[in-house]
Amino acid sequence: MSQAEATASPGSAPAAKLPLFTLTALVVGSMVGAGVFSLPRRFAQETGVAGALISWAVAGTGMLMLAFVFQTLAVRRPELDAGVYAYAKAGFGEYLGFFSAFGYWASACVGNVTYWVLIMSTIGAVVPALGDGDTVLAAVLSSVGLWLFFSFIRRGVKEAAAINRIVTVAKLVPIIVFILLALFCLDPGVFADNFAGADYAGSLFNQVRGTMLATVFVFLGVEGASVYSRHAERREDVGRATILGFLSVFAVFASVTVVSYGILPMSEIAELRQPSMAGVLEAAVGTWGQVLISIGLIVSVLGAYLAWTLMAAEVLFVAAKDKDMPRFLARATAQDVPVPALVMTTLLSQIVLVVTLFSDDAFNFALDLTSSLSLIPFLLAAAFAVKVALAPADEAGGGRRRELVVSVLATLYTAFLIYAAGPKFVLISFILYAPATVLFVMARREQGRRLFSPREVVILVVSVIGAITGIVALATGWIEL
């Protein structure tokens, strides 16, 4: 069964359970998307070779700890389906569970915007009116694409099986070709000059910090098997697929970044238009390299958009089924398509797409916001794993020293990521989180329950204060899009 077939029915389990190979492919397919094609420029804007190597070491270790967390929780708490959202709810209550579900969903929606910006930037190389994907024309065409995909998914996505096979090849072949050709054309002198980083990069610590959100963005999807854990053939396969998918993709991501430093000076890579992989390969082998990457990117990103739209719908749908979202989001058609969840997903992507028009760098803004929105769900999942590991040995999931060490490291890593994100994206995230409470209130009223417990009121107040601070900061120019 293909990934597309696996994700085609968010409303109910597929006819057949998903084996390890399919789950691993789902993780790889979710992780290898727009991010990898943008890595050379993003890293060159922040760091040299030394900083990049440290960044990947930190990110690889931290994300591996998170992958181990998802592996452990899948086995130790098999009754918890839908991954990130379910772990937050079980560990810290319904309101934070709601925030986790909303944050993960919003992250997927904003991430979808990066796909359209990158597509328009790619075409913009031959159609100047599209700019870097941030012009009014680019936004209009992207909006048309958003709603065409909605219409396609609305009818059911049985056709997506064939598309997914094409997309898988389109993702991997250009990337592997890029790595091999860049290695063959690598100039040791250029690589050495880029090692310490350009003057604008700052201290080594600042170089590493500046790349952290980019690494989070490209690793989104590591939890993909966990999100679909209820469809797994065996619960153990969820964890195995997470680790196998992560390790294979990590090797690809790090290679793409490092080999680029041997083709062009760091300052020139930093000025390339997106997708920067195309510019690097053009410098190495000529125009055909740029064409290869550009075509592969467009096909790949359209497929990734399909997969992540379905992933986002799954989160909203499951949360509504668990009565943590309004019941209208639990509706699905006869083809098992959760149309209300898809409408919400497309609407949020549309809003963010318009917001990017006011940003100095549309792609980097959407990328960083995507990463920032995912941090709270990841932090809550890691912290829940700490609680599970600290539980008495005779309780479900309790008493494992190794699991405690891993979960503590994962928690510290995600906390560091929130620090690395800085106040700008944390405050912008609050601007999205706070109004989302309306959905939580709707769900509680539908059930005739008390709206907030005393602890939930505290969380609500913190989120509202964060949102107000963010709005004031934007209005006064303290932070900018």
What does this protein look like?
The chain is mostly helical. It contains 19 helices and no strands. Helix 3 (34-46) crosses helix 14 (276-285) and helix 15 (287-321) packs across helix 16. Residues 1-15 have low confidence and may be disordered.
SSE order in H/E notation? HHHHHHHHHHHHHHHHHHH
Low-confidence stretches: 1-15
Put simply, the count of helices is: 19
Q: Please report the total strand number as a whole number.
A: 0
Terminal CA distance: 42 Å
**Major β-sheet profile:** none
Q: Kindly provide the radius of gyration, computed on alpha-carbon positions and rounded to a whole number of angstroms.
A: 21 Å
Could you estimate the helical fraction of the residues in percent?
over 70%
Residue-averaged pLDDT:
80
Strand content: under 5%
Summing up helix and strand content along with how strands pair, one would put the structural category as mainly alpha
List keywords for this structure.
481 residues; mainly alpha; 19 helices
Topology:
Blueprint: H1 3-7, H2 20-31, H3 34-46, H4 49-76, H5 84-92, H6 94-123, H7 136-154, H8 160-185, H9 188-193, H10 204-219, H11 224-227, H12 235-260, H13 266-270, H14 276-285, H15 287-321, H16 339-355, H17 362-390, H18 401-446, H19 454-476
